[in-house]
Queue: 3 jobs
Job 1
Amino acid sequence: MVARAYTVAFEGVEAHQVEVQCALAPGLPAFAIVGLPDKAVSEARDRIRAALASMAIALPSKRITINLSPADLPKEGSHFDLPIAVALLAALGIIPEDASESTVSLGELSLDGSLVGVTGALPAAMSAAEDDRMLLCPAVSSPEAAWVAATQVIGAASLADVVRHYTGQSPLAPSKPGEVQGETSTLDLRDVKGQERAKRALEIAAAGRHHLFMVGSPGSGKSMLAARLPTILPPMSPTEALETSMIHSVAGILEQGGISRARPFREPHHSASMAAIVGGGRRAQPGEISLAHNGVLFMDEMPEFSRPVLETLRQPIETGQVMIARANAHVTYPCKFMLIAAANPCRCGHMYDPSQACARVPDCGQDYLGRLSGPLMDRLDLRIEVPPVAFRDLDLPNDGDTSEQVAQRVAAARDLQTDRFETHDGIRVNADAHGQALEEIATPDAEGRALLSQVAERFGLTARGYHRVLRVARTIADLEGAEQIRRPHLAEAISFRLSTSQEV
């Protein structure tokens, strides 16, 4: 007799169905797991044996064979403990076979039978919904999985609870989705003294999810501005929150067992490796660019990052996804993020300060910022210089708009884009528009077209730069509530495009 249960094997954010088959046969007592398991899966037999012993369930003196089908798909992780135990209990006749076959389960077993939380509960729930099965998982992982309303999610604290649930002694109630309540931020854009042009660029970037590059002396406020960007971003939509949380679930960084509507803000150190930024490792885990999906990736001291890491960002910035190719896996992760990059004008950082003039000006600045290649810089929509703030200006009272006021304008612009791209697949904000969609929404008037022609001839604007200027101009028009792009919108977009073009 062969009993069956179901679980999943992860390949990126995709969860592939795995059938767990358990057969009891006469012969020398043995417990074998086949089907390309890794070390963690092979060790499941010892954890299961101890967990069943804690429940006073003795294994029969037979040969127990567990097959994980399909057998050519690599099985990795400790979440196979629970489905193997469920299949074994069904084979022993302790729980009904039809119950085990109608359930997708995952979870790690402790030696006393309690269930430990695992990663990937959210993608597993999506897979269970597609197969019209319920999901059984540890109680600590159930709040995130319960966000998938198309399937019933049951959270159990121990293997004994699972047995009592399936035998009808003590049925478990379906889990409810959990939501992480974000902490109230004390940061405010008004804390930044001066820097009105930088604040304007930050507002445009937030409204259209454009990439921003800031160059300025140390202490001019670049990091301070970037830290306040989350305070003006609108919360994620349910679809965006689900997409981002699936990546975080696979990476095991979901907090408090729930889903947050706050946009991710990732700020890796410049010593981070290629695998840390782009993704990779033995299990092809997501990197910082994927963890920042639908959020912000802040790269401070950008020229200090290794050149291979920087050049690898070209394709993800353009396509919004990254493929991690390994000998045993090809995994694709989404990575539609907003890149906020900051850099000093030179290695010493005082190239623009006349009181601390460097003897190597301008060569020091060209050598330092020259680490950023032209093709990479061509992909950055907004480029601004952040001048140093005079000491006497720090004593002036706070001025300018608050984060709340800017956030309202950004949200209004995002709402316009949501309505505009409602019928376009894969396009949510102006930064995603391309081809025919870009022509429909960003055709300039006659004066604007003439200005663009002059700029293209004078500064050698590339085709990519031309399209990015149009996207930024469309966002500027959205912030004003204008129907058509006019010359002032294009002029402002071009001014941000050419701010540091001569120095880089």
Job 2
Amino acid sequence: MPPPVATALALAGVANLAVAVAVAVTAIATGLPVGGSVLTGVALAGVGCVFAAFTALAAQVFDNPRSVYGATTAALGLAYLLRAVGDVGSGVASWISPIGWAQRTLPYAGDRWWPLVLPLVATAVTVVAAGVVSEHRDFGAGLLGDRPGRGGASRFLRSTTGLAWRLHRGSILAWTVGVLVLAAAYGSFADAVVEFVAENPDVAAFLPGGAADAVNSYLALTLTITALLAAAHGVNGALRARREETSDRVELVVAARTDRLAWFAGHVAMAVGGATVVMLIGAAGEGFAHARASDDPGQIPRLVAASTVYLPGIWLMVGVAVAGMGLLPRLAAALAWTYVAYCVVTEVLGESFRLPDRMLLASPFRHLPQAPLDAVTPGGIIVVTLCAVIALAAGFVGLIRRDLG
């Protein structure tokens, strides 16, 4: 195996060990049993090692980083989906997923150590496979090389929008398919919420709307998660412009008669438009799965309409990345991804962590109705949309006032 790959795997192993120790120590410090806490940390590290080994294998197979990232992301999504299907089915699908292996250790509820043999074997086999593949590829290339491009550019590539679409289309397609599959899994579980409330009248007593409120609360949560994923895609797409800039490729584009704002606008349009498409198609997939489970075709347009409420929040998160590239280009990626992480924590874990309300106000979704649970009012939607427009405009103004590169 090439020394760089071995070094990367070693670093990944150290990082996973650090995660295991941190999780175990934190859990023990909160008063949880030592055995279950240590098992939880080791199980999480096992999952990390499996995907680190898979990434090493993908790096030997594919010729460019984008294909490696795409393959690894697809593997993560498939593992999550198999685990989710197994949880609501017979459980067989969970045994195919590394995430399912970690859950089957049953920490704090049995403390089974033997399932950890599975990630150990999978990691070893994948690392050996990566080493074998590395011996059968050319130096500096992957087992599957890039196909040669056309001799001449198409007419579509003669515009900045066409160039941006060419650069972003693979990412948009991959994120759309991944979020669609995940959202469909969410939608198929909605009917189980109704059954749970029906079988637990004490739970229904705390909900003024009964099972309907429980389902709408669940759908609002899953739409928020879908919105966060769509925003992450939009941020990644917006930062593609910065990567083009730092790699000096943009200089070849603007050296002729191409306006820098037109070039930048193409990338921003793909980022905002791609994030919007991911959100709407994800909502449609969730609505379709929910409609099939509940025999109610009206759920499809209902959830698509509800998803539009979250779009201003997505645009604002993309706008933060765009503003960063215009005003603070060196810190743009760090600022954008920090804001994404903040929004994920506040929306998904804010209640669990009992964070003060004032710490949650910077998340745009805190100012938007939680459709379809809440009544949709225009106030918050207008304010967040205006903030998104201001952030996007700030990025363009900043780009005008600074040099490229």
Job 3
Amino acid sequence: MYEGAISLNYLKSIAWLSFLAFFSVLNETVFNVSLPDIAVQFGISPAAANWVNTSFILTFAIGTAVYGKLSDVYGVKKLLLIGLLLYGTGSIVGVVFHVYYPGVFAARFIQGAGISAVPALIMIIVARCIEPNQQGRAFGLIGSMVAFGEAIGPVIGGMITNYLHWSYLFILPILTLLTLPFFIQTLPGESMREGKTDVLGAILLSLGILTFTLFTTMFQWSFLAISILLFIGFTWRIRRAEQPFIEPSLFSRKTFIVGVLTGSILLGTAAGYVAMVPYMMKDVYQMPTSLIGAGILFPGTVSVILFGYLGGICVDRRGNLFTMAIGIGMITVSFLSVALVADRTPWLITCAMILTFGGLALVKTVISTSVAGSLHSEESGSGMGLLNFACFLAEGMGVAIVGGLLTKPWLAVSFLPTVTDAAAFLYSNMMLLFITAIIIGSIVYFSVYGRLPSASEQPSTSE
């Protein structure tokens, strides 16, 4: 489909898709600092308020897998247009029905289903068009825009929420519709290919994810039992379908599975941490929403741009292992410093966010390059779609799990002697949980990729 030399149109498309990727993840995090305000306005708990983000991330995660699979049959251009129109529709729903919590929930749900087309399709274009020894820089550029959007989202959200109202955040995504004429002209036409979509497999997987996420926030075992049954049904389906939603062969490739699993653990942990910071700043330091965005989270955007670009170069020149070690080291130092002195000064959190977002930019570049290198060309749609799906799902679950943990009294106890403010006990202990998750993710990655002769594995024809 897109294999071969890279044309000027493809480069333009990637540049503009990177711009759209920025807006897609911006909308993922732009509501972060406004969640406490939403909870107060509707009289709901933090766990319920976090579903404003979780609903978006869930459909965002599912959509990346669906669009990735559909691109193998219908092509990129048509799916991108459909996704952007759906994204705009969700934004309009949010503007109209923002006074009702179910309306806000529905709007975020629709937004996620639409904008998920962007990261899914841009990853596929890079995996198919760009030579493996140049993919690091391409993924680094895209990762920079994605991480920049994630980082600056809370800044913009905080300013708008503080000086206007959080409902105005639904107006920003409508601006992306202005780019539709450009994409219609720039993206090349594509012929339809024979194939069909495994609708039953997609439904079983989506429902399994939804019920499992409900379990992680409500801790009702019935949801866990239902999710297990749905996942069993999904496994049965993809083994028997003529054209399964996800090719079973992908699950037998160790490097692919480990890359996806590592990305899910690390990105899910980081998303949970970012979602926790606004609550921490309000509870421990009584900081206003606007200052949380501008003073605490915004400086991390600078590190994202720098480290995203450097990370791509580092992957191409020094390899995945070296770059991953640097990224994980930065995140771990950041988390540990917050755990030890969570109640000393809010500006320590600012410095920690620089390390967190910078390290996250490196990690994302490595994960994308590692997974792309483990795929055959014909698997790029499903494989990269599954990577996006798993990582965004993990981010949604990370946010949801943190929302649930923030209500647990057994975490709000004194554990580290360096933390003396009772209001900070909960958040210091949460950081220890985050560090544990980061260590687990790094062990998973290096235990497999550290044994390979190179930083990424090129799939063999025998696999």
